[in-house]
Structure formats: structure tokens, C-alpha cells
Amino acid sequence: MKARSVRWGVLAASMALALTACGGNSENRLETGTDVPVDPNAQFEPGTTMAKLKQSGTIRIGTKFDQPLFGLKGLDGNPQGFDVEIGKIVAAGLGLPADRIEWVEAPSKTREELIEQGRVDMVVATYTINDKRKQRISFAGPYYEAGQDLMVSADDDTITGPESLRPTGAKVCSVTGSTPAEQIKQYVDPENLTLFDVYSKCADALRTGQVQAVTTDNVILMGLVQKGNGRFKLVDRQFTKEPYGVGVKKGDTAFCRFIDDTLTRAEADGQYAKSWGATAGKVSPETPPLPQLDPCS
């Protein structure tokens, strides 16, 4: 899979355009989203997950409620962001409009449980594909490739990358059960790693000086920087590749292939680009290409 570079110089110049990316109101269900055309002729083989969802007329999708630009709960109580758009694209391929989606909060540490227990039909929640998770669930995609970075206070010039964390004695915050929390352990001592259930708490800890850095995927950090009103900045030193996938029940290869086919069509017909531009594109204007899709298993 090719590494996808993000042109952060362009992002910095575009931050002013992003101030409305996390808003919401009662008159517009997804203020920064798009109207995804629904497939009126969607038909599926009986017994498949797709057929069951089409027949039920609803789909339950797990996503984050605290991730600016990807999955953030709006003022109207509904989530918005690029992950939400991906969920809408899949639902539309099933013949289901956005108002037939039941959104379920899916924090990092509970995503596998939600899928295994059947509390959701799929999860789109900045969900990095890795071998450990594949032991419990299956992934469609990836639909986006991010990279881990660091967020620090706007006036902090001592932290210049992950290698500077241990020498400076910096305390770092991440989220329990997340890939970034595991990756950062090679750069910090255990006593200097703080874990919370959501990244918003890490941002609060950075603002109050309890930690000196927050680490997760770059796009998530850009959203937190955006919400920080000048208090934070991105170090801008990506040190991992994080392919985001759609989590489904283990072994449901038919549903996985359907999602992959739907994503491929969305890129070809321009819906993928529209969805990006209406959400994360408010900060990162250049639409990323759809990554090479992994085999379904």
C-alpha cells in the first residue's frame, strides 16, 4: 500500500475555512455532510447481511462522537464527519437513506465488542486495520490512510518528534485500546503515558498542563488543534501509517466485498471526493485517493 502524504502547508493555510466543520443545527441533519444518492434498485442474495439490512429498512453503524472532521456529535445530536459520510455511502448502496441509519457511539476500546455482540452492523470509527483486531473481526477497505503524529501546546518548541519525548521527560496522552497508544510506548516510559477513554480528555489534560503531548492519527489531531482556538499545534512529524477500515463481523466476506465495491464506485462517481470535501476537506483540501483495498477474509 502506498503511503499517502498530506500537505500540511496547505492545511495550515486552510484552517480558517474549517471553523464550521464541527457545527450542526436542527434544520440540517449533517451540516457539513452530503446528500448521498440512494440505490433504488439494490437487490441482494437471500440470507446475506445486505439482504437482511435491506429488508429491515435500517442499519446500525458505530462511529466516534468526539472526533472532529471524522465523527463528531453535532448540536442536533447527530454525528458528522468523513467516517459518517462513509457510513452513509454504504447505507445508500443498500438502498437505505441517511435517516434510516442508527448511529451508535463506538469508542476505541469497545469497537470489537460492539461488532461481536451484534450491537452494530458495522463500525466506521477511525479504525486502524491490524492483525490483532483481525483475530476478532473482519475489515473492509481501507478507505483512508492516516499517520500518527503529536499535538503540543502552541508555545512548546522542545518536542520536535517522537524521539524527543523521552529526553525531555514529556508526559504523553492517548486513548485506551487504540493503536497510537501501543505505538507510542517505544518512545516514552510507562509512568509518563496517560490513557483516557476519549481524545477530548487528552486535549483537556494538555490544556491544563497535566501532559505535554497528545498522540493519535494526524487528521484527528488537526481537528483537536482546530477546536483548541490557538492553544495547540501539530508537531507535523508522522511516524506511522494507519489504514482505516470498516469493521464487520468476523468472516462476513460477502458484506466486506459489498462494502469494497461500494467504496470503489463512490470514488469513480465522485461521491468519495464530495464526502471528503464536505468534512475533512474543510481542513485538508486535497482529496486523498482511495487506498488499495485489502482482500476480504
From TrEMBL:
Signal peptide boundaries: 1-23
Stored Pfam families: SBP_bac_3
InterPro entries referenced in this protein's UniProt entry, alphabetically: Bact_solute-bind_prot3 (IPR051455), Solute-binding_3/MltF_N (IPR001638)
Domain of life, source organism: Bacteria
Domain (Solute-binding protein family 3/N-terminal): residue spans on this chain: 58-283
Extent of Pro residues compositional bias: 286-297
SUPFAM superfamilies: Periplasmic binding protein-like II (SSF53850)
Entry keyword set: Signal, Transport
Transmembrane segments: none
SMART domains found in the cross-reference section: PBPb
DNA repair is among the record's keywords: no
Renumbered residue ranges of the record's region Disordered: 277-297
Family designation: Belongs to the bacterial solute-binding protein 3 family.
Xref: PANTHER family: ABC TRANSPORTER GLUTAMINE-BINDING PROTEIN GLNH, AMINO ACID ABC TRANSPORTER PERMEASE
Name of the protein described by the UniProt record: Glutamate ABC transporter substrate-binding protein
